[in-house]
Write a structure and sequence with these properties.
- This protein has one domain (13-80): Arc Repressor Mutant, subunit A (Orthogonal Bundle), CATH 1.10.10.
- It is 45% helix and 7% strand.
- It contains 3 helices and 2 strands; from the N terminus they run αβαβα.
- Helix 1 (13-26) packs across helix 2 (40-48) and helix 1 (13-26) packs across helix 3 (66-80).
- It is globular and about 55 Å long.
Length: 85
């Protein structure tokens, strides 16, 4: 059997982070916390960008920073809201 060639793609981690941030906004609770069940590398990058609280720990959620929530809302609307014509 011939081995398959593995193609390594260069990922745009900033765009991945934007999508994760927008999806976090989708799952935000009224208390402001967000379930943190996304890729750990992306979550850590969002924390390093000061958009969410530290995802490391026992808590199953994180909290947006003020800038993080603003950006998450903007990205959510840009990526997922159908614009009426």
């Amino acid at each position: 059997m011939k081995a398959k060639k593995v193609v390594r793609l260069k990922l745009d981690t900033d765009r991945i982070d934007d999508a994760v941030l927008a999806l976090l906004y989708l799952n935000q609770y009224e208390c402001g916390s967000v379930w943190k069940g996304f890729d750990w590398d992306a979550m850590n990058r969002l924390h390093e960008k000061e958009l969410i609280s530290d995802p490391v720990g026992k808590a199953k959620s994180v909290v947006f920073s003020e800038e993080g929530e603003r950006r998450a809302k903007q990205l959510f609307e840009q990526l997922f809201v159908v614009k009426e014509t």
